[in-house]
Design brief:
InterPro entries: Acyl_transf_3_dom (IPR002656), O2_lipid_transport_reg (IPR052728). The protein is mainly alpha-helical. Helix content is 65%, strand content 0%. α7 packs across α16 and α11 runs antiparallel to α16.
Amino acid sequence: MVININLLDSNVLKKVPVQVSVRNCEIKQEFHVTIPQFIVISITIGIIALISAGTAIDSYISRNASSSSDMGRIPQSLLAFSLTMNLKKLMKSSRRNSSLGAVNGVRCLSLLWIVLAHTYGFGHRQGLARLSHAKTYMDDIFFQIITNSWVSVDTFFMLGGLLVATSNLKIMESTGGKINYFSRLVHRVWRLIPPLAATVGIMFILPLIGSGPLWADMAGQKVLNCERNWWQVLLPINTWVDFSSMCLLHTWYVASDIHFYCVAPLVLGVLYRWPAAGFALLFFITAICAMVIGLLTIIYNLPPTVIFFSPDIALTKRTANLVYFRPYPHLGAYCVGLVLGYLLWKYHKWTLSKMCQTVGWATSATSCLAVLFATYSWSRGTSADPVEGVLYAVLHRTVWAAGVAWITEFVGILMITLVLSILFHLAFEAPFLKLEQIWFPESSKPTEVKKPLDNTHAT
């Protein structure tokens, strides 16, 4: 049948200068469950059973409050899976007191930006209408918001460094500069592994729930990558492998974040005891990473950044593999977050004059806009000047993170931005801040220190 379809397509399109091939052929076959799929389904059934038992116990206790004190450890453990109890916590939208009120708004806006860009860059082309109009998109300078959206990820790295710094420095302040490095690292991994494992499990059972003409193109290779390399997600080391073979491509961010988190407490320890040495260490780390990016750009003749819709697909993939999906290009943004977290912790009562605020806002806006729109000519096919290209490749992520860091610290000055932050927090962010409690309802509470940053939520 495949040969007949090939012959039919070739005859129909013989006057059109295109090559035709059949990429996939589905045949009727018996339903088959592999061993990994059986394991995933079994674990899922087990979790559903725990949720049912926990919900039943919760319902019984709510009607017999006097019996709650007589529960043993096993019923208490099952109660942690109660659907009703966790839904109440999930839907509770109370907001912790924090001087970092803008973080949730910035985080949500960046998330929406990423979704918008991925809709253009990673959607299936056959599902788009008027695709021929795409060739004119690059002429619109404002389309750089889509094509150069790569920097939005560095916003999250900066925020990650900020929140890690504030939470760890509070602990160090209450313990005289000491911190249980192993305990913090285990807690971090303990929070991340269950959702990662659940997502990998979904990829295993995906072939059982879908089919169709485009199914193999959309999901086939992704499922195959996870069947081969699922362990890279859980270790996590998938930020160091070829992105075409990654299981769950987006988890490269999680892997990089864990890498940074392993280093952050050590750097913060130096910053807490010897601030000058700590700042020098952060500058040294950022400079080394910048040097690596510059050398790779020069040696492999890479563009300044990943160019969306570039005609040279091989060069785009090489840039993504050697630079974008690696940790070192984003470590500078993370270091900016660590610096900002230290400044907010150390100088929380510090106020700037109106002149300094105006200069800061102008510099921040100019820097971010320059980073965002500097790629306009490159996106239209113009080759970057060698020196200009290397400088942009080395600096643009850290400069962007520094610009957003200023906005994050002083965004409360503008009332409209504060209102938007609160609205986005209530509509999008607040429910998801409670997701941890579904898996970890008894997670450790933050250390109480009488500072304005006492209840800052760290991720």
